[in-house]
Amino acid sequence: MRRFVIVSTTVVCLLGILGIALSQGRSELANPNKVIHSIIGDQNEGRNLDAHGNAGNAGNGPPRGSNGISYHGGPVMGVTTPPRIYYIWYGNWGGNSATTILTDLANNISGSPYFNINTSYYDSNNKHVINSVAYGGSIIDSYSRGSALSDADVQGIVTAALTSNRLPTDVNAIYFVLTSADVNETSGFCTTYCGWHTHGKTIAGTDIKYSFVGNPDRCPSGCEAQTIGPNGNAGADGMASIIAHELEEAVTDPDLNAWYDQRGMENADKCAWTFGTVYTAPNGAKANVLLGARNFLIQRNWVNASGGFCAMSF
């Protein structure tokens, strides 16, 4: 029989104009956080998946939680050691300031009031996520699998980076495959999702967490919040929001069996494309957080406390 694994709880696509996003969070979309399934192997063999494609509560009893999101017993990242971020720059990034902007994001999100929201989440030993994440470095992949990628290709890109030792095999990391604007992810980038995260138990013989984030310059009306980003690169600024979203989810639900609500929505999904209080950056674009020396406009995350709410800090 076919064995399906959930590829992601995606960020919402078809964002629309900034005014709508900031005021309404695109609540008018019928299913803004559609769960995407793909056949990518047999890593779920012998496991009973629920209606959302998740692996259940890992034998740790019924879901726990009273803040609009529940814990289902699976592992959580970053409870003792800071998780690491690795970037795989796929395609053509020559001369694109995104490489600097997004590296600055990875280097400065740790210890921020924004990342501190994750400390409201805990594992089966009641250990809470710590407010720390490390940037582990990056590599360039110049179209090793062409410019039209399947979900399996994305996993293959990560696998090749590890088996070639171009990046270390790190079970405490999230590997982001960042594709240039001329690259398409054929399972639904720009039409159904803007990015996703998942894990693969058979990558380099271990459980590796990874994410796909495409350059939204390919579909600015679908995956960019504004036509001019606070760092002067709309594509990179759009990717920053999606990376932050997927990072929050990968930390609190790395194996897709930890934190999500009764609809299968992970923490960042519950706040997708809402930004809270915004301010005007020096170049006239909107922003809502300062990380290091840069302004960003990134999606809020769900605080697992006080009944649960969307916020930019905790």
Could you explain the architecture of this structure?
This protein is an alpha/beta fold. The chain has one domain (5-311). 17% of the residues lie in helices and 23% in strands. It contains 5 helices and 17 strands. The protein has helices at 18-24, 98-108, 151-163, 220-223, 234-252; strands at residues 5-9, 35-38, 70-71, 84-90, 134-141, 148-149, 173-179, 184-185, 195-203, 206-214, 259-260, 279-280, 286-287, 289-291, 294-296, 301-303, 309-311. The protein has a 5-stranded mixed beta sheet. It has a two-stranded antiparallel ribbon with strand order 1-2. A two-stranded antiparallel sheet has the order 3-11. A hairpin with a 5-residue loop joins strand 12 (279-280) and strand 13. The termini are far apart.
Structural class: alpha/beta
Beta strand %: 15-25%
Percent of residues in helical segments? 10-25%
Sheet bearing the most strands, described?
5 strands, mixed
Spatial sequence of strands, sheet with the most strands: 5-4-7-10-9
The counted number of beta strands is: 17
Q: Name the poorly predicted regions.
A: 1-61
Q: Ends: how far apart? A: 45 Å
- Count of helical regions: 5
Number of domains: 1
Which of globular, elongated, flat, extended, rod-shaped describes the shape? globular
Q: In sequence order, what are the helices and strands, one letter per element?
A: EHEEEHEEHEEEEHHEEEEEEE
